[in-house]
Structures are given as structure tokens and as C-alpha cells.
């Protein structure tokens, strides 16, 4: 369990994180979402005690992480896959971490096998691809078999097989009762993995709820209708207060009415329907909508 | 670790799922830092290169003396030894410069290198107790560079005196001042390495730390001459001048003379201060 309370971090004049408060619960995968520069990495560093908060507090399993003399058995973290020394082999990198935490070397070989790096264990990390470094970072996070795991953008650089594997791993870790906190700036990465979401923008909390609640809050959907009699159907729909936009292939995009009501109106006016579909907005759209006001580095923004 | 922190660690062990956590041991950190230090090929090469360069400078000078030897009588040979030139050639100023720079660079890289690669975050996420970790690192680097310094100074002494023996003017280790020179030259390595670590910890940038090592260890002591009292005293507080004092065979002939014990104290206090800075500097910093 990670508890963040009224957390604020300022660097000089800029405020990276402001009054942030949320909980990350065990047994679930929690997605940590926000546009670039929203303060995700800062928050993760504050959780790990790498940075000191200006005010507020954050605890992991009831204690500030920095109070623990050794960390790997409490929190496993992958912050940046580049946070390694290129001159070390994968195995040496992990052995150094294991040794300092009193973890037997046998565990190093176990996690290397688990992430699929057993073959390259003796190769220098400097020659690794980003995907391989991500796997090494995940191996380091797993080393201490910790109850809490943090991952900052873990899917970067992974191939599709790797992405699938990581998702499965997160699900499994959560199923084992661990707290799994995964940051991303892409909702699509979280959609099929996360149970809960923490969404921030410009350092402030936007949402902290289950994925289902977030989707529901994102608002009503639209109905797509295909009919040869658009000329008859359109006025009857607008008369009921719907807004109708012609789509491609003779389709009508109807919002303001649900599919059942659209069907009833078509029957009443003897209009033939070839298609009647409800389209829920994607989580991606919901995410974009909620964070639109908080995007720090928007492209083509007037200044 | 303090008893309070240890008690806290015990409590958490009972409460957390990581119940099998062993008691945190400082020796584990030392072993981890040693593994980290010795596994870098670049470190091994630069240390080996430094020792070879030191040997080359010293042996080269001794060989020049051997080759262009003109004192053919016993009196000239005795004067050569009496004037302390045999000892001077056991470890000369060029060798000292190479040793200080190489050891200083190794120390600076050991700390600033972790900042450059970002490894420092991985390190402190795994071991949140920053001070013990840095103390372990200081211990490892100091020990490794002491061995390096001892090898460079010891081999230099043996090699140069063997070469000078070809003219019958080599001195044994029992010669007055010989042990002192070898010990002071050997200790120059850890003193410089600790200085490098302190500067690396303060500046957190490899390039800046290397420049600072050069300025603090080599440039500054040269500027602090003994024409004024305060610059003389300040100069005596630098390892460079302390080594010069310890390498001198007889009594000092400067305007503001100082004792051999004072020079040893400078090396000791300088090392201690550098070690403290290296351990404390990163303690409250954001990474």
C-alpha cells in the first residue's frame, strides 16, 4: 500500500507536484497516468525518497521509504532503464544490488531467467537495446521479491511480445497480492492492464478511481445508424433533441439518444435500418478530454 | 546503524511480508561496492596505466643517472647518496603528479560517474541508507588506491635503487628517510582518491570534478608559496606540499619550516575531511 498525502514538490519557482493525495492498494494494478511533464516521475522519486518533498508525506506500507536501511525487499522499482553503468554486465549489475541487500546470488540468476536475459547475463549493459534494459530494470525490481512494485514507463522500447509479457507479469504480481504502480503517458497502454487509475496533470490530481468508474465518468456515447432513408430519419431524431452528424458511407452519428430510442423512432417512421451501433468513447478519448486543459507541452499551441 | 534505527528495522520486519529480511550489515555494502568497483574494466585499466606511468617516470630518471654517470671516485658516490639524490630518484615529482591525478580521477569517477549514468538512483532505491553506502564506497576506494599507491611506490623504490646499484649508489629501504618517502608516496594515492570522491559528491559532474581535482591538488599548492606567512601555512595544509616535506631527506630549508609530524597530520586530516564530505554531501540532495 502506498499512501500519498498532500504531497508538494517545488524546484525553485516551478511546482512539479501540488497537494497530491491518493492511495495505491495491494492486489491491484494501478495505472499512473498523465501527459509528459505532469509530475509522474517526480512523484515516483518522492515515493522512493530519492527526492525530498517540500511538504506533505508519502509512506509505503506505513513508513517513509527512506527510513528503511535496505529497500529491495520492500519496494522494487524501475525508474529509468538507463540508470545503470554501461560497463557492468547484467549479472554484475544485479549482483551488486543483491549483495547490498543480503540477497543470495542464486536469486540473480532466477530473475535474469524470468525476464529472458539469461543468455546475455555476462554481456555488458552498454551494448543492450532499450528493450533489454527495460527487462534488466524489471529484473532488478523483482530481485527482493517485494510487496510493492513501481514502474516508470516500463513499456518503452519493448517489442509486442515484450509488451504482452510485461502486462501478464503485472497481472500476476497483482494477483499475488502485491501493490503494482505503473506510470504511462498513454491510456492505451493501461486500458487492458490496470484495475485502478491515478490521473494527474500539471502536478495536480485529476482522478483516482477504478478504471470502470473513470470510463463511466468519461460521459455518454454516441449511436451510429446506417439507413437508406436518412432524409426521413434525421428530422425525426433532431425533433427528439438529438444532434445528428452525417458520417462516411451514408452513416449518421447520433448523440443525445441511446440506441433503443433511435430504433423506436425508426420503427415509428417506417425507416429501414441497416446498422444500429452504440459506440462508447475510448478511454484514450476520455483521458485526452480530462487532461486537455493540463497538457504542459501541447503541439501547435499559441503562445 | 543506530540502536533506534535497528529497533525500527526489527519492528517493520515483523509487520511486513518481507519477514525473512536479514539484519542489514555494513559488510554487505562494502562487498557490493567492492564488486561494483572491481568489475569495471575502465577502472582496472586506468589504475594499471597509472602504476606503469609512475614506474616509467621514476625508472627513466634513474636510468638517465646510470647512463650519464660521471663520478668515478668513491667520494663522488658518497656525495650522491649523502645529498639524498638516490632517494629523490626513488619517487620524483613527475611520478607524484601522475599518481595524484590518476587516483583523484578514480575517486571522482567512483562518485560522479554514478551521477552521470543515473546509477545513483538505482543504488539509493535499493539501499535508502545513503551514509552507510557512501562510507562503504569510501572504504573500498581508499583501500584499493592504498594498494595501488603501495605497489607504485614500492616497485619504484626497488626498481630505481636496483638501477642505481649499477653505479654502486643505490640505497636500501633501511636508509634514513627511505621508508618515509615510500610511505608518503603510497599514501598520496588514497589521499587524492578521497579528494576526488569529495569533489565528485559535491559537483556531481565528471568533467567539473576532474577540473576541481586538478585545481585543488596541483594548481593551488603551487600558488601558495612561502613568501608570506599565511600562504605558507595554507600551503602546508595541502597534500602536495606535505609530500614534498616528507620526501625531503634532511631538515627543511624554507622560510617557514615545518615538522615531519605536521606533514603527516596534513595527509591524515585532509583524508578525513574529504571522506566526511564524500559521505555527507549527497545525504539530503535530490537525485
From TrEMBL, chain B:
It comes from Streptomyces alfalfae. The keyword Protein transport does not apply. Keywords: Membrane, Transmembrane, Transmembrane helix. The lineage of its organism: Bacteria, Bacillati, Actinomycetota, Actinomycetes, Kitasatosporales. The keyword Transmembrane applies. Residues 1-19 have a biased composition (Low complexity). The chain crosses the membrane at residues 44-63, 95-113, 134-158, 178-199, 206-224, 261-282. This is ABC transporter permease. Residues 1-22 are annotated as: Disordered.
Amino acid at each position: 500500500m502506498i499512501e500519498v498525502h498532500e504531497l508538494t514538490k517545488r524546484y525553485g519557482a516551478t511546482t512539479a507536484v501540488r497537494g497530491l493525495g491518493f492511495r495505491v492498494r495491494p492486489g491491484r494494478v494501478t495505472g499512473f497516468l498523465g501527459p509528459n511533464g505532469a509530475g509522474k516521475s517526480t512523484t515516483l522519486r518522492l515515493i522512493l525518497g530519492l527526492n525530498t518533498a517540500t511538504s506533505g508525506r508519502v509512506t509505503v506500507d506505513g513508513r517513509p521509504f527512506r527510513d528503511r536501511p535496505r529497500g529491495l525487499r520492500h519496494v522494487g522499482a524501475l525508474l529509468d532503464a538507463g540508470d545503470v553503468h554501461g560497463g557492468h554486465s547484467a549479472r554484475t549489475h544485479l549482483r551488486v544490488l543483491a549483495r547490498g541487500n543480503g540477497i543470495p546470488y542464486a536469486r540473480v540468476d532466477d530473475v535474469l531467467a524470468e525476464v529472458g536475459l539469461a543468455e546475455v547475463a555476462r554481456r555488458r549493459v552498454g551494448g543492450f537495446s532499450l528493450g533489454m534494459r527495460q527487462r534488466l530494470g524489471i529484473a532488478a525490481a523483482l530481485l527482493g521479491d517485494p510487496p510493492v512494485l513501481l514502474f516508470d514507463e516500463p513499456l518503452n522500447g519493448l517489442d509486442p511480445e515484450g509488451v504482452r509479457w510485461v502486462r501478464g507479469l503485472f497481472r500476476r504480481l497483482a494477483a499475488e497480492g502485491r501493490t503494482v504502480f505503473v506510470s504511462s503517458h498513454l491510456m492505451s497502454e493501461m486500458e487492458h492492464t490496470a484495475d485502478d487509475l491515478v490521473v494527474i496533470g500539471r502536478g495536480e490530481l485529476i482522478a483516482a478511481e477504478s478504471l470502470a468508474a473513470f470510463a463511466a465518468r468519461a460521459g455518454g456515447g454516441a449511436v451510429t445508424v446506417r439507413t437508406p432513408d436518412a432524409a426521413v430519419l434525421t428530422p425525426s431524431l433532431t425533433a427528439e433533441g438529438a444532434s445528428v452528424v452525417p458520417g462516411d458511407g451514408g452513416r449518421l452519428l447520433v448523440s443525445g439518444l441511446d440506441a433503443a430510442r433511435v430504433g423506436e423512432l425508426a420503427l415509428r417512421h417506417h425507416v429501414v435500418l441497416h446498422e444500429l451501433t452504440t459506440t462508447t468513447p475510448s478511454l484514450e478519448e476520455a483521458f485526452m478530454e480530462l487532461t486537455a486543459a493540463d497538457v504542459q507541452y501541447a503541439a501547435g499551441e499559441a503562445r | 546503524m543506530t540502536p533506534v534505527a535497528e529497533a525500527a528495522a526489527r519492528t517493520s520486519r515483523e509487520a511486513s511480508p518481507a519477514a525473512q529480511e536479514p539484519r542489514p550489515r555494513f559488510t554487505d555494502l562494502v562487498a557490493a561496492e567492492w564488486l561494483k568497483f572491481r568489475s569495471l574494466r575502465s577502472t582496472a585499466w586506468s589504475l594499471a596505466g597509472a602504476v606503469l606511468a609512475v614506474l616509467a617516470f621514476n625508472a627513466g630518471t634513474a636510468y638517465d643517472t646510470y647512463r650519464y654517470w660521471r663520478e668515478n671516485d668513491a667520494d663522488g658516490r658518497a656525495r650522491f647518496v649523502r645529498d639524498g639524490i638516490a632517494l629523490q630518484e626513488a619517487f620524483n615529482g613527475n611520478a607524484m603528479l601522475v599518481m595524484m591525478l590518476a587516483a583523484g580521477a578514480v575517486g571522482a569517477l567512483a562518485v560522479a560517474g554514478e551521477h552521470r549514468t543515473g546509477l545513483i538512483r538505482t543504488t539509493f532505491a535499493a539501499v535508502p541508507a545513503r551514509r552507510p553506502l557512501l562510507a562503504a564506497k569510501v572504504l573500498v576506494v581508499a583501500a584499493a588506491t592504498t594498494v595501488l599507491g603501495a605497489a607504485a611506490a614500492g616497485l619504484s623504490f626497488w626498481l630505481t635503487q636496483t638501477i642505481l646499484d649499477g653505479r654502486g649508489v643505490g640505497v636500501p629501504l633501511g636508509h634514513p628517510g627511505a621508508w618515509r618517502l615510500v610511505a608518503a608516496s603510497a599514501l598520496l594515492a588514497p589521499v587524492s582518491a578521497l579528494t576526488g570522491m569529495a569533489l565528485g559528491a559535491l559537483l556531481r559532474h565528471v568533467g567539473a570534478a576532474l577540473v576541481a581535482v586538478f585545481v585543488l591538488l596541483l594548481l593551488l599548492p603551487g600558488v601558495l608559496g612561502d613568501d608570506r606567512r599565511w600562504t605558507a601555512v595554507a600551503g602546508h595544509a595541502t597534500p602536495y606540499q606535505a609530500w614534498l616535506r616528507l620526501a625531503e631527506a634532511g631538515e627543511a630549508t624554507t622560510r617557514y619550516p615545518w615538522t615531519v609530524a605536521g606533514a603527516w597530520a596534513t595527509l591524515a586530516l585532509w583524508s578525513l575531511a574529504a571522506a566526511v564530505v564524500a559521505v555527507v554531501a549527497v545525504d539530503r540532495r535530490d537525485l
